Amino acid sequence: MTPPLLTLTGLTKSYPGVVANEDVSLTIAHGEVHALLGENGAGKSTLVKMIYGLVTPDAGQMVLNGKAFSPDKPSAARTAGIAMVFQHFSLFGALSVAENIALGMENPPKMRALAQQISKVSDQFGLPLDPSRIVGDLSAGERQRVEIIRCLLQDPKLLIMDEPTSVLTPQEVDILFETLRKLRDAGTSILYISHKLEEIRALCDTATVLRRGNNVGTCVPRDTSARDMAELMVGTRLHDPERRDRPKGATVLDVKNLSAASHSAFGTSLKDVSLSVCKGEILGIGGVAGNGQDELLAALSGEIRTKRGMISLDGRDVGHLPPTSRRALGTLSAPEERLGHAAAPDMSLMENAFLSAATRKALTSLGFANWGKTRGYADEIIARFDVRTPNNQVAARALSGGNLQKFVVGREILQDPDVLVVNQPTWGVDASAAAAIRQALLDMADAGKAVVVISQDLDELLEITDRFCALNEGRLSASVPTTELSVEKIGLMLGGAHDLETANV
Ligand SMILES: Nc1ncnc2c1ncn2[C@@H]1O[C@H](COP(=O)(O)OP(=O)(O)OP(=O)(O)O)[C@@H](O)[C@H]1O
């Protein structure tokens, strides 16, 4: 019998106040697509970082192809045949595809030879990509292809992928899965982290489930329902968000012919965007990343100021007002980028609670921060949104991605806004916590609030929104009642022509 590609035995890693991995053992066979499942903070990233040489285990052993393996840095893991595609891309927007790939290589060949190699690998694995294109002009799906091709040029034995589909359209997911199947057939093993359980069922041969740092079992995803996998992850029954019929009130947010330039050199300017949201309504905005989502949130939150007459709140012109004034008037927002935009990475959760809630939660007294009250608010967010953290003094950057997301969304919802604008509210959040966040958004609408959900997760938009629009190259389509849509139709709408009309659906 051929030995497995990689065996992990008793891997343990602790951080202050938390055991991220405790005595974790698992085996990855050659040519196997192995899913790593677990709720937020379960220890998935920590485990793969140990395999990739970014984190050193406190205890335990790894054996790769029959030999002891203990990489002390990523380049050692790469030399041993391990490649990793991270959730966050590390590409330079101003450089070409080939230049970006060359930057990550120890001994890059001449540009022309590299471009040929890139074209060859992209043909072989069905990942269309022109080596001379500037990365800043690429879609999120194409950027991910750059990262994957960069890995494939190393001819890896094990490819680790952390949440690879969260930025992709359904069509791009299909292309990615075809590529991964080709790789598997060529004998490469894949370790795949995702919270999208139906995708795991479609792709993976086996799954290991982590719960609070421990390996609590394995399953064959094809033979296990998504609900059973989610329940194995959390160890309890899962509650689906409950949607109730509710009356729609008066229009509260009204956007008319909004055009605004992006703040970023590679951003997308907004072009003639019109929308309205009523009290008691959730408006969904779908779109592939980079089509103006960040700019729309920035215009609605006040980070981008607009001309008079473009944005009104309860009939009052607000487009020229900065974020603090919009907050005071009841419009709150949670941007997509949680580290660095929604939260200050090196500040504690308590300080991060203060940053956005000081006014609405009255966290100051006589011009000074009231830390006692602020601590109480941070603890309320942590308890109500089940944020897994040792305490409120922990820096935002030390939280697992999903737990920070729960904190950021919870921090805004608990300020009781009249209008809440969220971008990717459940990005990287596990099934159970995602259901809790969606329920909280539905509860807000039930309480007569207006909610704008910008998301690339089509199932999410179908599940909770009342109306749907597609954002494409900075233009917004007319809205369609969500009940009239299907995932396939939305997919077409998102990838469709610039001037999307309801008729296209
Ligand atoms: N550098 C660090 N310092 C302190 N604690 C950390 C650090 N990295 C991870 N942790 C903690 O270790 C635990 C496991 O985190 P990890 O990121 O591995 O979880 P995860 O399963 O990948 O979660 P998610 O699905 O949310 O990304 C969490 O409680 C997290 O807060």
TrEMBL record:
Keyword tags: ATP-binding, Cell membrane, Hydrolase, Membrane, Nucleotide-binding, Repeat, Sugar transport, Translocase, Transport
InterPro entries: AAA+_ATPase (IPR003593), ABC_carbohydrate_import_ATPase (IPR050107), ABC_transporter-like_ATP-bd (IPR003439), ABC_transporter-like_CS (IPR017871), P-loop_NTPase (IPR027417)
SMART domains reported in the protein's UniProt record: AAA
Ranges where the ABC transporter domain occurs: 6-237, 253-498
Location relative to the cell: Cell membrane
Cellular component aspect of the GO annotation: plasma membrane
GO molecular function, one term: ATP binding
Descriptive protein name: Galactose/methyl galactoside import ATP-binding protein MglA
Native organism: Nereida ignava
Gene that specifies this protein: mglA_1
